[in-house]
């Protein structure tokens, strides 16, 4: 267990350095063109990026550590000696699984509550300094359901200033007849009061005979179930939300009738699914590396890398089907993990015990 954890820590550090180096070389032109200073890049951006890198690389780091340690034991004939003396492969698997279970639980907490906090800084920096920043969704002609009998329509929403332009609120009766309509030239979010303030507002109410009563107000404060985050959506919005906040956010989007939820839902379900990759890859790594092969450690590491990248490729190939709705986002998030879990169990059944 000590050697496995030591190898894991070494691999994580190496992958962090490798990832940051590649990322910087790819985006250095964007950083310089858009005015990012070296201090902002290396003292703010990348330190806040490290938790996300750890989240992404943790399964790979644990898998490579497992393959290296187990392959070394196999090449030195230590596993053969243990198995000959009556120690089964399943017994040898216990310390690996113990580490993987603890790490899976830790990464679930880390991914669900720590990474989103640092990702807020990362996403703000990306939005400001990268050409390939997260794309804004629902910028114009936004329609949201405020309650079962009321709708909110926004002509244009400025997510930087939290100001909506050309706003209409419609209130319907149980018979779907329009009872009230509120039109405002502008609606701004008051963070201190958690309310919206309407400017240049006209309220029109309709009685049973469709007679109209009109009232005008320079400003008017109102409380809605539609919040700035429901209007200022991006492709990577859930990455900056803890699991409880993301749960409320997804429920609010579904309630308000927002469209294009595929990417958001896949990202949300991945918060639950991705940590299990740490455990699944351990279940694959031990039987894979426990066989002594010609070529020694190089072949073991090569097979390990091939398996790890196949796992990653399966996730990346499946996710777009969840984005487009061809697959349920829940299925798209869990399918690669369940498929490789099946492969892991099959390998354990067929492995020499």
Task: Explain this structure.
The protein folds into 2 domains: 220 residues, no CATH class; 94 residues, no CATH class. It has 10 helices and 8 strands. The strands form 2 sheets. It has a 6-stranded antiparallel β-sheet. Strands 1-8 form a two-stranded antiparallel sheet. Strand 3 and strand 4 form a beta hairpin. Helix 4 packs across helix 8 and helix 9 runs antiparallel to helix 10. It starts with a helix and ends with a helix.
User: What's the alpha carbon Rg, rounded to whole Å?
Assistant: 27 Å
How much of the sequence is in beta strands?
15-25%
- Number of E strands: 8
Rounded average pLDDT: 89
Major sheet description: 6 strands, antiparallel
Task: Give the SSE string.
Answer: HHHHEEEEEEEHEHHHHH
Give the oligomeric state of the chains in this entry, treating copies of one chain as homo and distinct chains as hetero.
single chain
- Strand order across the biggest sheet? 2-3-4-5-6-7
Which structural category do the helix and sheet elements fall into?
Answer: alpha+beta
- Gross morphology: elongated
Counting structural domains, the number is 2
Would you identify the regions where 5 or more consecutive residues have pLDDT less than 50? none
Q: How widely separated are the two ends?
A: 21 Å
